[in-house]
Amino acid sequence: MLIQQPQLISIRENKPTLVKNFVTLKKKYDFNLLSQFMEENDSTVMSHSSIGNLRDVFRIPGVSGYLKEFKTFFDFLTKMFNYQRDEQDEVDLFFSFVSQSGHSHVDVEDVFIIGLEGRVIYKVFNDENKNYTVEKGDMIFIPKGLKHKVIALDPRIIASVGLFGDRVKSV
After folding, report:
1. Separation of CA 169 from chain center
2. How far is residue 23 from each of residues 2, 56, 102, 146, measured CA to CA in Å?
3. Phi and psi at residue 78, in whole multiples of 5°?
4. Would you kindly state where each structural domain of the chain is located, as residue ranges?
5. Is the backbone of residue 143 left (phi > 0), alpha (psi -120 to 50) or beta?
6. Quick one: pLDDT at residue 148?
């Protein structure tokens, strides 16, 4: 996993930050792997939108214990940015089968989103109102409380590391 010094500073300053080529993925994350994962782990799949049928965004909560890479992402980000552990902290998978645009929303936790498959634009509404394109292996940090919108350009799969705890300041 690779984060350059300017990106580290930006995240520590609680700014939305795109990290291109954050990780080289060992597995091919496609819908066949997702289907196998769901079957082997008896996973709960939740519809995360109300568009209907296969146009919805789907969520598989709490996957950090199932695939080694997810646990590695979680541990790395928690330690790198000194988060206090919160029982709600977890890695969730989000996926959609078609390109689509979600509603603008605000998360109550800091999220580190890692692209596993497809291309997604994250439109962040702050002083800069900037668009960030996340592709396979890229990561974006969106601090809690910051309004944003997700626009999937392709069918997509992303891992979302949600951290609810406060960050401990280094001395």
Report:
1. 24
2. 7, 27, 26, 25
3. -60, -45
4. 5-163
5. beta
6. 96
**Do residues 22 and 134 lie in contact, with contact meaning Cβ atoms separated by under 8 Å?**
no
| pLDDT, tens digit, 9 for 90 and up, residues 94-120 | 999 888 888 899 999 999 999 999 999
- Distances from the Cα of 61 to the Cαs of 19, 89, 97, 161, in angstroms? 24, 11, 18, 10
168 DSSP assignment: P
Q: How far apart are the first and last CA of the chain?
A: 25
- 114: which 2 tokens? 């890692």
Q: DSSP secondary structure string, 2-52? A: ---HHHHHHHHTT--EEETT----SS--SHHHHHHHHHHHT---EE-S-S-
Tokens read off for 139: 């990561």
pTM over 0.70: yes
CATH number of 5-163: 2.60.120.650
Reported as a single tens digit per residue, the pLDDT across 9-52 is 999 999 999 999 999 998 899 989 888 888 888 777 777 655 55
Strands, E assignment, 30-168: 46-47, 58-60, 90-96, 100-101, 110-117, 120-124, 130-134, 139-142, 148-152, 156-163
